[in-house]
Amino acid sequence: MKAFATLFNRIDQTTRTTVKVAALAEYFATAPEQDRLWTIALFSGRRPKRAVTTTRLREWAAERAGLPLWLVEEAYPVVGDLAETIALILPPPTRTSDHPLTHWITVLKEIAARPEPERKPLVLAAWEQLTPTERFLFNKLMTGGFRIGVSQKLMTRALAEATGKEASELAHRLMGNWTPDTVSFHDLILGDDLGGDLSRPYPFYLAHAIEGAPDALGSPQEWSAEWKWDGIRGQLIVRNRQHFVWSRGEELMTDRFPELARAVDLLPDGTVLDGEIMAWDEDGPMPFNALQKRIGRKNLPKSLLRQAPVVFAAYDALEWDGVDRRDQPYSTRRAQLERLLAAATTQHALRLPPLIAFDDWPDLARIRTTARDNRAEGLMLKRLDSPYLAGRRKGDWWKWKLDPLTVDAVMIYAQSGHGRRANLFTDFTFAVRDGDDLVPFTKAYSGLTDVEFREITAWVRRNTLQRFGPVRQVTPEHVFEIAFEGIHASPRHKSGIALRFPRMSRWRRDKPVSEANTLDDLKALLALYG
Amino acid sequence: MTRDPVLTFTDRGIYCPAGDFFIDPWRPVKRALLTHGHADHAHPGHASYLATRSAAPVLRHRLGKIRLQTVAYEQTQRIGDATVSFHPAGHVPGSAQIRVEVDGECWVASGDYKTIEDGLSEPFSPVPCHVFITESTFGLPVFRWPAQDAVARELLDWWRNSVDRGVTPVLGAYSLGKAQRVLSLLTEDIGPILTHGAIEATTQVLRDQGLRLPPTAQVTPDTKTKDHLGAIVLAPPGALGGAWMRRFGPVSTGFASGWMQMRGVRRRRAADRGFVISDHADWDGLNQAIAATGAEKIYVTHGYTDIFARWLREGGLDADVVPTEYEGETLQDSEES
Ligand SMILES: [Zn+2]
Ligand SMILES: [Zn+2]
């Protein structure tokens, strides 16, 4: 674990991409092959099965550290990371060891295989022989979510440097269903045959946001436009009479959306489509809220399938006849997509939303203002002669979203943040006016600068009216502009309203509380856009 | 008849009715007793000041012409009906806990303190009392300071590494206390030490009162890095990332603070390296210090007050939180405290 801990420290101690890539490349060139494979797995979101619940981990760590459990639970939100909290509170190790990363993963698998009462001594024994950094990493492996400042893109770059392979090819190799138990480093990274995994998707091409207007993109004739939907980006794969649905987060979601099983009848083998998974009823696209009810549900009652039917709105074809077509121009791919879906009708879960015809940029700008009426969040622009690239690359795909909706709201509660903002008040609850009352309707965490957060933190300390555990009720004095992407009715909220992606877009120092928006204003927005 | 408590918490600071004075007040008062010279404790505008002899030069340097009376550690004096003495807090050179006794009842206001010896500040000495007002800046069990020689080695490694890569290491440290602390950790093997003007001035004040610190050279508009190959630069955190840094070309930035213990805070600073060096007591330090006072009543201020007070109560002490509105400004990790 020493080499892996050193790698982690080198990555963690710098903000420079080049230094991170160099550290990773060096690790990939020197670490044992199985450790390399696991490192790739971890940095691409694959991890060993959870061996112990976080509840148990907290209990054992508190006991080992001689602290009451509540104190560990209070410290956790301040640190913002359970693995780190535990690593910090445990007494120093009593012995040292230097087993490779793979050894500790084997230990974790062993722990997972044992009945619950036998797990504790194994975890304690591991803590006894790991340094604080190694403990943190070990705990991370146990609790999951191995995000430590290494994106998959960055790792792919380092791997390219270490192996001499193209980064785009590596990105494709790393997609899909593999785990370190099912593939060797050699087969995954260096082997000739890429076809082993039927479900393997392609790396997604991600669009950049347009700043201002698209005039700088050149001639409108070189571009195609379509609505930008608010769903889940996905890939639909049909190979060997099977279908697979991947989300952009590289999650295999085939079983969540039984509606898409029809793809096997509608598409030939060797087809991969890029598109948006959306809830869509006879009136058209539904708000993201509807789709959200479907995600995270393992069993799908008939009523829910009826309430929020899912479709795949296709907008690109990446593979047909079993051949990777990503280097073909977009216009060719789109034409093929239209041929493939010619048979699909509006009755089917496979949709082909039409392109939007426009004469010039001002014309398109006018069309964009009608996006909300079309239940879209803006426009997508794609260069007609562009290949399908991997990752977020500037130039060929642009999203041109509508400006967010906004309301001016009054801050009424404050709570300190966690992790990197542990010592600042960053989590706020906002209210709108309703007669003489203030009705809370949303929380927001982001959007202010560090300087503004510091200023509001000092203010909160001086203007606390009451404390409820970590939450402080503050004098209703400051008005903030809250920006959000969508609004819908929610019986769970006191205001009856829930927002999508709320954030503080401006501190309205110019506005007194009496000029903040009202509950009626919110209801009007709900009627318009809900 | 109930009598006044020895010390009370007011919206101007800690107040002693029997002696009619304030401790570390943040609004102008007639008579202010100061624990130390940090900005959140030493405010300008009071009619008269009282502080330790070794805190005086920095106070004069920072507050200019003030009516300042000084006192030696442990020396008692009568103010009104109160008996007052200053005791080493180990926080920064000259820092003190203030002991106030009225009619045989004794309270101690800790100010900021740390229990480990830094070789510069007068070492913390526990003062037996009935009531102890403690800070709790790092009052969570996740704060345990690493051995200082290990941190000194990390500093040296970072310097060597930076120099090898052809970049200048620039370390952010507050000008009073932290900067001198870092200086004392830098061994003789290190190259020239360059300082920002604010640090140089405070360091010189402390040198003049007898503190032994390695030689430093102030960065001026004429400073050229090529004249100081292998140098390390010390600057106040505010200067990090600013225009002042440009003269050094490519740099590696570091930051010295107890907050660097937390990975999240370390990353927010966006410095390349964080070094866990604090002038406040860590979890163990706070607990040891409180136990050593023998106090039965504890007031907790500045920091994780609610959590720390609950912990103390479970340990059998009568602990309360000083109401926030009577806490004064709490400074953030980017400002000195
Ligand atoms: Zn302070
Ligand atoms: Zn201080």
From TrEMBL, chain A:
Domain of life the protein comes from: Bacteria
InterPro entries noted in UniProt: ATP-dep_DNA_ligase, ATP_dep_DNA_lig_pp_1105_fam, DNA_ligase_ATP-dep_C, DNA_ligase_ATP-dep_cent, DNA_ligase_ATP-dep_CS, DNA_ligase_ATP-dep_N, DNA_ligase_N_sf, NA-bd_OB-fold
Domain ATP-dependent DNA ligase family profile: 303-434
Chain ranges passing through the membrane: none
Enzyme class: ligase
Single GO BP term: DNA repair
Alphabetized UniProt keyword annotations: ATP-binding, Cell cycle, Cell division, DNA damage, DNA recombination, DNA repair, DNA replication, Ligase, Magnesium, Metal-binding, Nucleotide-binding
CDD domains per the UniProt record, alphabetical: Adenylation_DNA_ligase_Bac1, OBF_DNA_ligase_Arch_LigB
Organism the protein comes from: Sedimentitalea arenosa
GO MF term set: ATP binding; DNA binding; DNA ligase (ATP) activity; metal ion binding
Keyword match DNA damage: yes
Name this polypeptide is given: DNA ligase (ATP)
Organism ancestry: Bacteria, Pseudomonadati, Pseudomonadota, Alphaproteobacteria, Rhodobacterales
Record's catalysed reaction(s): ATP + (deoxyribonucleotide)n-3'-hydroxyl + 5'-phospho-(deoxyribonucleotide)m = (deoxyribonucleotide)n+m + AMP + diphosphate
Automatic annotation (TrEMBL), chain B:
Keyword Cytoplasm: no
E.C. number(s) listed in UniProt: 3.1.-.-
Protein name: Ligase-associated DNA damage response exonuclease
KW Nuclease (keyword) present: yes
InterPro entries: MBL, RibonucZ/Hydroxyglut_hydro, Xnuc_lig_assoc
Organism of derivation: Sedimentitalea arenosa
Enzyme class: hydrolase
Organism ancestry: Bacteria, Pseudomonadati, Pseudomonadota, Alphaproteobacteria, Rhodobacterales
GO molecular function list: exonuclease activity; ligase activity; RNA endonuclease activity
Record keywords: Exonuclease, Hydrolase, Ligase, Nuclease
